[in-house]
Amino acid sequence: MREDLPEDEADFEVRLVQIGDGAAGDRLDKALAAAVPDLSRARLQALMAEGLIRRDGAALTSGSSKAAVGEYEILIPPPAPAEPQPEAIPLTVLFEDEDLIVIDKPAGMAVHPAPGTDSGTLVNALLHHCGDSLSGVGGVARPGIVHRLDKETSGVMVAAKSDAAHQGLSKLFATHDIDRVYVALTRGAPHPSKGTVDTLIGRSSSDRKKMAVLKSGGRQAITHYAVEKAFGPQEKPLAARVSCRLQTGRTHQIRVHMASKGAPCLGDPVYGSGTPAPVVREAITASGLSRQALHAAVLGFVHPVTGQTLRFETPMPADMAGLEAALSAL
Question: Where are the transmembrane segments (predicted)?
C-alpha cells in the first residue's frame, strides 16, 4: 500500500501504467483501456470524473484528451460494501403487479446505495417490500432499477420485478418511448415561455461533480418546456412554474437546461446560480423548501409484459405546493 496517499484513499488499489510512443496522441481513455484491459473505458472515465487518474500528481478529468508518453497513476476504490439489505421503509405504491412496481419517491431518498449512502435508499425499501422478486438484471447494488431520480427530486418512478420487465423497460427508456413530465419552480422564467432546449450535456470541466452544457462531447439532451404560470411582474417574472417534458434522460438534465435558460430551479444548491428576489427567498423559507424545486409529476409507458397502457400522475409534495401558493400571492 502506498504510504503517501490521502487518508480517504489509503485503501485504494494503485495501478502504475506506462503509455508508450505507439499510443501517444490517442484518446486518453482509449490508450489507458488498452494498457489496462481489465478496466473498461467507461470505468476509466468514471475514475477520471472522480479525480482518480493522475499524471505527475495532477488529476486528469477528460478521457478525450490526448495521451502523452509517460507514467499514469490509477487509483481504484475498494469494492462497494456488501449487497444492500432490506429495510422496512414505507413506500407510496401507485401500481404493482408481478412484473413491476410504480412508486411516488419522496425527496431526500436516494435511489440506490452509493459511497456514503448505504442504507435508507429506494433499493433497501424495495428489497423489503418485494422480497426476492426484484429483477436481478440491475446487479446486486441496483436490483430492479431501470432509471433514476436525483436524491432531492420527488416523484413517480418505476422499478422492475421480473427480468422480462427490466429488459422491456430498459428498451423503452433507451428509445425514449416513455412519457415523462416534471414540474419545476424556477427563479425568473425561461424565455421564450415555450420551447425546446437541445444541447450536449456532459461532465463540467471546472467541477467534476457538476454536469454542464458542452459545445462538443457529452450526449445529446432534449427538453421540451412550457411556462405554466409566472409569478410577479408580467414583464419580468420573479419566479415561474415550468412544465418540462423529457425526450432524453441525462443526468441532471432539467436542472442544467433550466439554468442554461437563466431560470434555475429554486433551491438548487448546485445549479441555482444567482440570488432570488427577497420576496421569493421569503417564500422559500416559509414553505420549508430545502432542496431543488423539481418534481417528476407524470410517468407514462406501455407495460412491457402485458401491453397495457399505463399513466401515473402525482401532485407536488407539500414543500413545493406551499412554495407555489406563496409565490401566487406575489
Answer: none
d(CA 181, CA 14): 44
- Provide the pLDDT for residue 181: 98
Q: Please choose, from the candidates 226, 218, 274, 273, the residue with its C-alpha nearest in 3D space to the C-alpha of residue 251.
A: 218
Q: Which residues are catalytic?
A: 150
Confidence band (pLDDT; 50, 70, 90) for 5? very low
Judge contact between 158 and 146, C-beta under 8 A.
Answer: yes
Q: What are phi and psi of 159, to 5 degrees?
A: -130, 150
Q: What is the distance, to the nearest Å, from the Cα of residue 172 to the centroid of all Cα atoms in its chain?
A: 18
d(CA 303, CA 271): 35
Q: What is the CA radius of gyration of the chain?
A: 22
- For 91-94, the CB contacts below 8 A with 24+ separation are 91/125, 91/126, 91/129, 93/129, 94/156, 94/312, 94/314
Render pLDDT for 64-81 as a digit per residue (tens, 0 to 9).
899 999 999 998 887 655
135-144, 197-206, 253-262: least confidently modelled range: 135-144
pLDDT of residue 294: 98
Q: Alpha-carbon torsion 109, 114, 120, 125, what sign?
A: positive
Report in angstroms the alpha-carbon separations of 217 from 50, 197, 202, 323. 18, 17, 7, 37
How deeply is 1 buried, as exposed, middle or buried, from its count of CB atoms within 10 A (0-12, 13-18, 19+)?
exposed
Instruction: For residue 211, give the C-alpha cell.
Output: 454536469
Distance CA 213, CA 268 (A): 17
**Would you say 292 and 254 are in contact if contact means Cβ atoms under 8 Å apart?**
no
Per-residue pLDDT at 7 = 39
Residue 108: what residue type?
A: G
E strand or H helix that includes residue 282: helix 278-287
- Model confidence over 274-320: pLDDT tens digits? 899 999 999 999 999 999 999 999 999 999 999 999 999 999 999 99
Instruction: Name residue 83's amino acid.
Output: E
Cell of 292: 431543488
pTM of the model: 0.76
